[in-house]
Every structure is written in structure tokens, then in C-alpha cells.
Amino acid sequence: MTLVSSVLENFKAKATGTLVIIVLYFVAYAVRNIYFHPLSKYPGPKLWAATRFRYLLSIWSGNLHTDVQQLHQRYGEIVRVAPDEISFARPDAWHDVYSNAPGHPAFPKSKLWHGQAPGRPMSILNALDRNSHSRFRRAMEPGFTERALRFQEPLIQTYTDMLITALDKFVSQSSDGAVINVVQWFGFTIFDLIGDLAFGESFECLGNSKFHPWVALIFNSLKAATLAASLRYYPSIDWLLRLAIPKSVMQKQKEHWQLAVDKVNRRLNTEKERPDIISMIKLDENRVDGISIPELQATASVIIVAGSETTVSVLTGMTNYLVRNPKVLARLTAEIRSTFKLEKDMSLSALKEVPYLNAVIQEGLRLCNPTPVGLPRIVPPGGGTVCGHQLPEGTFVNVHPLALSRSPEMFHDPHGFHPERWLNIDPRFSGDKHEAVQTFGVGPRSCIGKPLAWAEMRLVLARMVWRFELQMADTEAGRVEWDDQKVFSVVQRKPFEVRLNLREGVPSIS
Ligand code: HEM
């Protein structure tokens, strides 16, 4: 008995001693970070400056975008959001962080957020060094120019036709129109199109009225990837994460990857010349003047994810704001119907010249940024300057899109949906700082798919309002507020329903 109690006493004393050391270590670490760190002079809450934990909690809750926006409202345009991270809400920060300038190259991506998965080839997203990245860009550029878009137009028109035909069928079944979940229908269309452009075959979501399993997996894997990357701030507990991932998830990921490889290989073995992106990417197994086949396999998957999640979000968000702002919707509808007598007249080049449509999309890109948390970068060796502030190497930096696009310093009535602000004719918006919004990013890593995204958004939106009367649906999913959604790197969209009726005097297709 005495031996047992003395062993227990001894254990208790050691455990208490260890706990005290751990607590003291954390206190010293936090005090050092708050008061004696090179970034201590920057404003921000002490809790966020002390350790990464508060920042991680915010990521895990899906509220990092709004939490940091609120910090900017409270502390100003430059805020310390973690011991080693500064967030900027100034338009000039865009170019300082992301663009190349003489003697000031764009800040690199960090391994933590963009490292290559073990055993996987490099893709355009995780080509971290400048030379590899510019090799990817040079190889891919021919597939993403305005000229390439002219070749791709028949495919873009075909999938948009399929969307409109499918919706027309629903709407024509009842005199009261139909309530549709636009997240799904825009998703089916954009995934089928991007699948065709990047893999040479559609996912057949429109035909089957449901998401292909490969596509369905993307939604969950983006959230999982965000949570996994966030844990890499603490490499010592990274192994815990790997233990926590169920084997079935790893197996699914493998199948997902294999399917992408098979699809690319099938496309490469097809002799047929098709006007898709994949046929325009330059291949070179020596990786000098192009990308290798494994790199293409990895990059084709990136194109699918980067090109679909984003476009579907902006299209859905814009539709959400349009049905909530009937005057804007009426003006857009009138513009499209008076400009185009027939649906087939809506070519990509004609739609480029329609001013209010373009302004609606600009405003949609401002309010419905699919990545409102921003694009983290790291200050390179030797340090770097952002907005005149010299920052030590290894500091994480970010320009915060949500804080900028919703700032009253940048935009008049920043929460309102006012496409007019982009037309430069209404004096209420003359003080707006358009350059604060950079939804496609800036610099050498900015969005390569911007012309395609604009083309898709113009065509889908214009075709929708030409044929249908759009209205808020009186359902729970019809009342979703765009801002009331979580973000795990990208917006996690809730279902969003809209009531559609056939336009008066237009015969149904079906
Ligand atoms: C509204 C739609 C879109 C938005 C808002 C958007 C936004 C962005 C942003 C902000 C980046 C920069 C990421 C970074 O710097 O870390 C990016 C990169 C990229 N986007 Fe998009 N994107 C859209 C549509 C598309 C489409 C349609 C495609 C292709 C079909 C595409 C393909 C890519 C690729 C491949 C990259 C990586 C570029 C690089 O690393 O050099 N995106 N996009």
C-alpha cells in the first residue's frame, strides 16, 4: 500500500512538474510573440498575436473570412492576425504582394498551403519555384487565350443550350413555373463543360440530372484539404492528422486520382482533333518547352476544380443578388431582350459589348468572391516590402478580399448590389476604388481562366434572363443570404432555389 501510494505520489509530482513546465513554456512563448516579436508593432488582438490557435479555430469554424474582416474594421487596414502573419486591406498591397516589379519579384507561395502531395506529380498550383511555374504558364497559355476561346465557343454554347433546354422542360410542365436549385444546375453545366475542355469528355451531370461521383468528391476534399493544410502550422502534430484520416478516405482519394489519370490518358489516345484546352497545352517529357504527361494529369484536375467551384459560386451569388434586387434584374432582363431578338444571336463576342450585363458581373465578382479569405503568400529570404512596411523573411502575408470589397472607404454603400458603380456615370459612386477588387488575382499567378470564366458567366446569365422570368422562391432554400455561408478556402455553397417562369410570348423548346 505504502509502495503504491509513494509511486502514485511520485507520478503526480512529475506530472505536475511537466504540466507547469509546459504552461510556463506557452506563457513565455505567448509573451514573446505579443511583446518582443519583430511584428509586435503591428495592431491586432493579443489573443491572435500570442499563438496560431485563435487563427486555426477561425479556419476550422469556416469563419476566417468574416473574423478577419471584423479585425480590419476594428484595427485598420494592416492587422496582425497570427504571430507571423499580417493581413492587408489596402489596394496597393495587391501589386506589392502578388506582382513582379523590378527588384521586387512577386512573393512566393508557401509549402504549407501549396506543397506537393507525396507521390503526386507537380501541377500548376504547386509549382512553387518561379522557373517551374513559368514553364507551366507558357505551356498552358495557348489553351486560355481569347483566340482559344473562339475555338471553344461551340462547346460552351452546347452546354449552355443543354442547361436552358433542361430548365425549359421543368418550367413548361406547370403554369406556375418551377422552383430550381441553381447551385445544382449551374454546377451540372459548368462541370460538364470544364470536364469536356480539360479531359475531353463531359461528366454527364446535365444528362443524368446529378453530380458524377468524381465531382461530388471535390466538395468534401476541398474542406478536408483546408483543414489538413491548417494543421501543418504545427508539423509536430501533423502525424496525428494522418492517423485520424480513415483508410476509406485515402482509398477514395486514390480512386479520384486514378480516374483523372485514366481520363487524361483516354483523351491523349484519341486521334480526333477537338477544340478543347487539353489539345492546346504544350507537352514535353523533358520538361523544357512544355509539361510532362504526369504534370498534365495533375494539372487537368486542377483546371476542373479551379474552373468550376469559382464560376459556379459567382453565377449563384449573382443570381441570389438579382432576385433580391428586382429593379436590377428588370434592367438586365430588358437590356438582354432588347439587344438580342433571338437566343442564337448571343455569341460570346456580342455579349462582350453589353454594358449592363458586364456591370452586373463586375458587381457579382465584388460581392460573391469565391475565395474571400484571400491567397496567402510568404515574404522571401532577405525580407520584403508591402505598402511601405519592411517585413522579415518567412512572414505570412495576405491581402484580404472581403475586407476590401465591403469597406465603406473603398465603395459607396459597400453591401448594396449596384452594378451602376462600374459604369462610371452615377455620381454616387464616383469615389469608388475599383482597383480594390481583384477577384481573379494579380501578377504571374493570377487566374489563367479569366477569359473563359467571363464568357461562361455572360452566356449563362444572359440566356437565363432572355428565356425565363426569375423570382425569389418562397422556400427555405430560396431565402439563403449569400453572406451567410461558411468558407473553407472556397465558399461552401448552400442550396439556393429560384422560381422560374417561361417568358411571355416565347414558345417552349420542349
Ligand atoms: C469566376 C471564376 C474564377 C475566379 C474568381 C477565379 C479566381 C482565381 C484566382 C484568384 C486565382 C489565383 C490563385 C492564387 O494566386 O493563388 C486563380 C488561379 C487559377 N485559376 Fe481561376 N478563377 C476563376 C475561373 C477559372 C476558370 C474558368 C479556370 C479554368 C478553366 C481557372 C483556372 C485557374 C488556374 C489553372 C489557376 C492557377 C494559375 C497559376 O497558378 O498560374 N479559373 N483563379
TrEMBL record:
Lineage: Eukaryota, Fungi, Dikarya, Ascomycota, Pezizomycotina
A molecular-function term among this protein's GO annotations: monooxygenase activity
Name the record gives this protein: Cytochrome P450
Location in or out of the cell: Membrane
Single Gene Ontology BP annotation: toxin biosynthetic process
PANTHER family: CYTOCHROME P450 (PTHR24305), P450, PUTATIVE (EUROFUNG)-RELATED (PTHR24305:SF199)
Matches recorded under InterPro entries: Cyt_P450, Cyt_P450_CS, Cyt_P450_E_grp-I, Cyt_P450_sf, Cytochrome_P450_monoxygenase
Superkingdom, natural source: Eukaryota
Cofactor section: heme
UniProt keyword list: Heme, Iron, Membrane, Metal-binding, Monooxygenase, Oxidoreductase, Transmembrane, Transmembrane helix
Binding site for heme: C447
Residues passing through the membrane, by range: 12-31
The UniProt record lists the keyword Cell division: no
Topology of this chain in the membrane: Single-pass membrane protein
Family to which the UniProt record says this protein belongs: Belongs to the cytochrome P450 family.
GO-annotated cellular components: membrane
